[in-house]
Amino acid sequence: MIETFVSFFFGTSDPVYIFTLLLLVTFGGILITLSVHLIPVGGAPAAMAQATGVGTGTTQLAAGAGLTGLLIAVSVSAATQNFFFTILLGGIGSAVMIALVMLMSNVGYIYGVGVPPASGKTVRDPLTNDRQDIYVSKGTEGHGVPTASFISGVFGGFLGGASGSLIFEVFIRMDPVLSASAVVLAVVLSISLFFINAVIASYNIGGTIEGFYDAKFKRLPRAVAVSATVTFICGALCLLTLINFGGII
Amino acid sequence: MKTGARPSHPVSNRGKEKFILFDKAALCGIFLCLAGVYAAALLPDTTFAFLAGFGMVFAIVWASGAVRKISKYGLGTGVPSVGMFGIGIGCIVSLYSLSLNSIWGPVAGTVMALVIGFISGKLINKVLQMNVPSMEKRMAEMAAGSTLAMTASAVVVGGTLNNIFIFHDYVGIGIVAVGFIGCSLAIFHAYNANLGPDEAPDRTRMLAALDSFLVMFVLGIASFLTGEVIGPIVTIFISIVFILISYYKYWTYIQRDAWKITSTGLLPGEEDLN
């Protein structure tokens, strides 16, 4: 009876190996949460040039960067089947994507709206030591993407893409054969995990953050705790799905 | 053209809401969706796959109601983020429940999604200190609604709960991506498009229904890839009929709620400019 119950839910596989993979997936989820904390997100106020960051929501920005990273990871994984190479190139793809987004939004802010990039949260830029407060327009919390936010965003994009690619690599390695169907399944499951963790981080920072120097960055441990728990549960379900579908692929 | 009075908004006793799923929306969402899924899966012909599409509509309307109730509180992160969280859990749990190859898969998936949604809502409220009243219930509703919607979208395409057919017809050729993004759009679009001080619940619900019929239409087109002919044609025909009906009803709600509708007129012609 118990064996039937266990095989109904868990299938039959080596538990230690599966648990190690599950820990890797959980680690990837935590890295996604960290990466969202590093990306400068301004939300709706930044769209009106009233807050520092790119003018869209956390989920959209993280998803854009993460999906670009996954796209590159899938092609690199299919071409080379190298674990670390896939993760590295996925991260670089995301970093390039988020850097282009920040660059083009800066072009829009500087030449379109006519405001200099300035941070409202610090007096001096933590990396270049430039004065920030005298450039902030009255009634706003900064505008554009200043240097420290830009560097932080590039690093966050790299972490996000690398962790998304890590989860994808774990999932694709669960399948016995590398086929197009297996890639679809692994991509859909890793996108789902990506969205879950991006939203958890988004709830933690309340929609807007400037980068690693923002006071909200200190709330990171809370998000890591929630992300680890939820990713552990959902990651277990993902691995069980891959085991159950594994016989068909 | 006024069709009836605008419904009044009762003052809800927020914070005192307990985790009970006996309201009408939840019962409709769970049982009608499961009825549609099982009818489509157990009837031997794929012609009846559209019944799962109706189930998907009820599930999406339920989930979008939950999105509305969370977002109304004002999270500061945007309505889409709420919907994407639900569909993330829903996609994983529904694929797991479909992979079980069991007739009880959808029921097990719904229960699992309710539990995971409740746990994550509790964690978000307590650990992240969002302190949104009844967050647990709404997260659970949203996760379960998304799970049911994704399961139903798989059955619309596959017409069965057999995991071999589901894998080759729904996951393998990539229709699962259409189901994922279609269901997520249908779940969060309704409130995102209607929010504001003049938001009316029945108008939001009707837009959610319209969105879900549009998803059903797209899934009907995608099911041609599985090699069936009669089933997709029936699904497409029925979804077009219901798209027109729900669009007309949504338009009447807009006319009811709008203060005044003016037409902008045609663009000036060549001789008017000279």
Q: Note poorly predicted spans of chain A.
A: none
Structural Rg of chain A: 20 Å
- As laid out across the biggest beta sheet of chain A, the strand order is 1-2
Task: Give the SSE string of chain B.
Answer: HHHHHHHHHH
Radius of gyration of chain B: 20 Å
In whole angstroms, the N-to-C terminal distance of chain A is: 28 Å
* Silhouette of chain B: globular
What is the average per-residue confidence, as pLDDT of chain B, rounded to a whole number? 86
The total number of structural domains of chain B is 1
Strand content of chain A: under 5%
Describe the structure.
The complex is a heterodimer of chains A (249) and B (274). Chain A has one domain (62-241). In chain A, 69% of the residues lie in helices and 2% in strands. Chain A has eight helices and two strands. Chain A has helices at residues 2-10, 15-38, 43-47, 58-80, 83-113, 147-174, 180-205, 220-246, and strands at residues 118-119, 142-143. Chain A has a two-stranded antiparallel ribbon with strand order 1-2. Chain A starts with a helix and ends with a helix. The mean pLDDT of chain A is 86. Chain B has 274 residues and is mainly α. Chain B has one domain. Chain B contains ten helices and no strands. Chain B has helices at 24-42, 50-71, 79-99, 105-126, 135-158, 163-171, 175-194, 201-222, 230-257, 270-273. The radius of gyration of chain B is 20 Å and the shape is globular.
